[in-house]
Amino acid sequence: MAKPKVYYWDASVFITIFNDEPGADHVEHFLDEAEEESVVIVTSSFTPVEVLKLKGQRPVIKADKDKVRDFFKKDYFRWVDLSHLVGETAQSLIWDYPGLFPKDAVHLASAIVFERISPLKLDAIHSYDNDFIKLNGKLPTKAVIMKPVPSQAVMRKLLEAAQKSPRPRRIKLTE
């Protein structure tokens, strides 16, 4: 079996699939690959809290609590605890990179700490947050910060599959 790709996801990636926003098909693809063990998804232990209410997004209501909690119980997620080390790393990032917002700093710090303590290395940091993405290449990580976009070959397969029969994986949250 080939070595799995390792992606860090910030909260915006999860919100994209929860709210069925543009890009949700791409997120679904990575979740399928995670189920097949060809992808590992890393995120902060803060993410399940953050996804409940992101600025400018529809909040997740209490009636959907079990759906959201069950979603995050998947074995393919790797968690970085919001530890003192992550917090101090995030503080330093904010002081060193004035354009970095606190939530983004927590995610970046989580990704950095993950790479320090894990034998796995990140292939990319996925986000739909344009303010975070525009800092790509300017931050102290070798991982590229980008929207989760499958390869061209995979994109062709996704388009073909969608034309045959859509199979939504999205969590249907209460309106």
Radius of gyration: 16 Å
What form results from the Cα inertia axes?
globular
- Class based on secondary structure composition and strand pairing: alpha/beta
Note the beta-strand portion.
Answer: 5-15%
Within CATH, the superfamily carries the name: 5'-nuclease
Report the CATH architecture.
3-Layer(aba) Sandwich
Question: What can you tell me about this protein's structure?
Answer:
The protein has 175 residues and is an alpha/beta fold. The chain has one domain: Rossmann fold (3-Layer(aba) Sandwich), CATH 3.40.50.1010. Helices cover 44% and strands 12% of the residues. The protein contains 8 helices and 5 strands, in the order βααβααβααβαβα. Strands 3-2-1-4-5 form a 5-stranded parallel β-sheet, sandwiched between helices. The model has no long low-confidence stretch (mean pLDDT 87).
SSE inventory with pairings:
Layout: E1 5-9, H1 11-18, H2 24-35, E2 39-44, H3 47-50, H4 65-71, E3 77-80, H5 84-96, H6 102-117, E4 124-126, H7 130-133, E5 144-146, H8 152-164
Parallel strand pairs: 1-2, 1-4, 2-3, 4-5
Helix pairs in contact: 1-2, 5-6
